[in-house]
Write a structure and sequence with these properties.
With about 160 residues, the protein is α+β, with helices and mostly antiparallel strands. It has two domains: about 10-65 and about 115-155, Roll (PH-domain like); about 65-110. The chain contains three helices and seven strands. It has helices spanning about 70-85, 95-110, 145-155; strands at about 10-15, 20-25, 30-35, 45-50, 55-65, 115-125, 130-135. The strands form two sheets. A four-stranded antiparallel beta sheet has the order 1-2-3-4, covered by helices on one side. A three-stranded antiparallel beta sheet has the order 5-6-7. A hairpin with a 5-residue loop joins β6 (about 115-125) and β7 (about 130-135).
Length: about 160
Amino acid sequence: MPDSTPNLPMTTYSERTLTDRREFELHPDRIVVRAGRAFVRSGERTIMLAELSPNPERGILRVRHNASLAGFVVALFVLMVVAGNIDWRHTDFAWFSYPAVFIALGILVVMFYRRRIEYRIFTFKSGTIAFDVMRRGKHREDFTTFCDTLESAIKTAA
């Protein structure tokens, strides 16, 4: 009797952000990578595991939030509008200073906070980059399990 589910993957992993999405399906002999961006056609790539090097490059990226400059400009604008609409002859300065301190702290957090993104870069045996996998999106906790399973599958396929 033939196997009724020959195309089911061993394991899957998904990276989804606001504008990007990548899905990985690990099969016993290959990995299928599907990628797409918002409002752009998606693509699919199938890579045979026997072609990959069993030792991926590991690292951690430090990424600044995408809206750090925009957040700074908006917070500065709000601060200036509030300061410009106060009649300083009849207002206590403390009324303005407390919100200004919180806005300034928020600006500093947004400007200097760097998100940590763990990644692994898988290469072909020739040394060229095949694909990378990053710990991001709502499935972050599956990253280590997926990468360990992928590395062991590459070693057995080699």
